[in-house]
Amino acid sequence: MGDRAARARHGRRSAGSTAVIRVGSMQEGDVPSIVGLEDPSLVHEDELRAELLRPWARLWVAREDDDAAAVAFLSTWHVADEIHVLNLVTRPERRRRGIARALLREAIAYAQRASAVRILLEVRRSNAPAIGLYRSLGFFAFGVRARYYRDHEDALEMMLVFGPTGEIERRPDEVCAAP
Prior knowledge:
The chain is of the alpha+beta class.
């Protein structure tokens, strides 16, 4: 799983500059920058290091520059013929630039190479931007986990399904995404 470039160019908010998003496998040296992406109570260094050792875990990071610290990460588990998205985090000031999309595309490509039949995830029901991103990639809502998060917000269960030849099968939502 070497370092694969996402090969996507996205405009930065500063006038005239662009950044190349590079997606690669997460390494031990990425852990400190990943912990700094969001609330430290949500992502712990010890947990990330443990994930790196699990043979079923697949973790990717995204960088905007060749040697820059990670600005986003995606953690998944490959269990049997399914990929479970555990966490997708982008540095707040880097959101809405295609970085999460690049990470998810890398996970989708991995799932297709591994002959997975589906990718599963949960998302806050109130997180309309994330739900829109997931739908644009082929995910659909299939269930609700009531009071799933610490603050008792519901989680929307979403799935991306692959057909027999690995193509994404687009399906309509099976449950209402709105709270």
